[in-house]
TrEMBL record:
Source organism of this protein record: Ancylostoma caninum (Dog hookworm)
Annotated GTP binding sites: N18, K19, Q20, D21
Upper taxonomic lineage: Eukaryota, Metazoa, Ecdysozoa, Nematoda, Chromadorea
Molecular functions (GO terms): GTP binding; GTPase activity
Keyword set, alphabetical order: GTP-binding, Lipoprotein, Myristate, Nucleotide-binding
Protein name: ADP-ribosylation factor family protein
Length: 72
């Protein structure tokens, strides 16, 4: 039986940095620093700037997940 930790370590992580259409929003790079995403070393991850309002960046994030899963 595969341990749950081992199973989930293979799951890619996508974080959407929403509301990028607002001037006051933090850029994806700043959010990445605040969340210390560079410290995640046991799985692949991506932070995707997006705006759910304009749909900008949403399809790119979904495409990344699909391609990442497909390549495994």
């Amino acid at each position: 039986m595969i341990s749950i930790d081992l199973y989930f370590s293979r799951v890619p992580v996508l974080i959407f940095a929403n509301k990028q259409d607002l001037v006051s929003s933090a850029p994806a790079s700043e959010i990445s620093k605040r969340l210390k995403l560079t410290e995640i070393r046991d799985r692949v991850w991506q932070i995707q700037g997006c705006s759910a309002l304009t749909n900008e960046g949403v399809s790119e994030g979904i495409k990344w997940v699909a391609e990442t899963i497909k390549s495994k």
